[in-house]
């Protein structure tokens, strides 16, 4: 018996290619995605819990939570604006600005924008810096709430 010929397809940039990856590589990629989603979900839950505890213990002012929500909304809209600019070939938002928004408590919206808009989700250098901002923001918030003697009081 002859092996079936691979189905020829075109990728998003209209380059000829072969059929989709093997099922084993697809499974491995899906496992990584599921692991990444589990990690980000766990981080977001811990981040939200830390905000709640910080406000309840009066270590964080409630107005600061409102500011974090506003920063998250702004972060999503900046990512959407940058995505539109990338598609149109017009002026772009700098990666530095996107990272500063993530560092300033906007990382949950940045992750959501990366996933829903498929923007800045595959550029390795950007992702490494993004995860550094997530870790830095979460660690600083945790230290401030859980170890107030180390905080900036």
Q: Give the rounded overall mean pLDDT.
A: 79
Helix content range of the residues, please? 55-70%
The count of DSSP E runs of length 2 or more, i.e. the number of strands, is 2
For the record, the count of structural domains works out to 1
Structural class: mainly alpha
How many helices does DSSP assign? 4
Strand % is under 5%
What overall form do the CA principal axes indicate?
Answer: globular
Q: How large, in whole angstroms, is the Cα Rg?
A: 20 Å
Protein name: DUF1294 domain-containing protein
Organism: Diaphorobacter aerolatus
Pfam families: DUF1294
Keywords: Membrane, Transmembrane, Transmembrane helix
What would you say this structure looks like, in words?
The protein has 153 residues and is mainly alpha-helical. The chain has one domain. The protein contains four helices and two strands; from the N terminus they run ββαααα. The chain has helices at 23-56, 62-88, 95-117, 124-146; strands at 9-10, 16-17. Strands 1-2 form a two-stranded antiparallel ribbon. A hairpin with a 5-residue loop joins strand 1 and strand 2 (16-17). The chain starts with 8 loop residues before the first strand and ends in a 7-residue tail after the last helix.
């Amino acid at each position: 018996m002859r092996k079936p010929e691979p189905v020829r397809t075109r990728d998003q940039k209209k380059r000829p290619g072969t059929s989709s990856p093997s099922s084993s590589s697809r499974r491995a990629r899906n496992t990584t995605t599921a692991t990444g989603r589990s990690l980000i979900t766990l981080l977001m839950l811990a981040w939200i819990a830390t905000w709640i505890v910080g406000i309840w213990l009066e270590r964080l002012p409630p107005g600061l939570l409102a500011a974090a929500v506003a920063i998250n909304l702004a972060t999503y809209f900046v990512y959407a604006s940058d995505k539109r600019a990338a598609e149109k070939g017009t002026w772009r938002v700098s990666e530095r600005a996107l990272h500063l928004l993530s560092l300033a408590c906007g990382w949950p919206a940045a992750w959501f924008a990366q996933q829903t808009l498929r923007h800045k989700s595959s550029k390795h250098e950007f992702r490494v810096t993004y995860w550094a901002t997530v870790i830095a923001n979460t660690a600083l918030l945790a230290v401030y709430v859980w170890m107030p003697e180390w905080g900036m009081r």
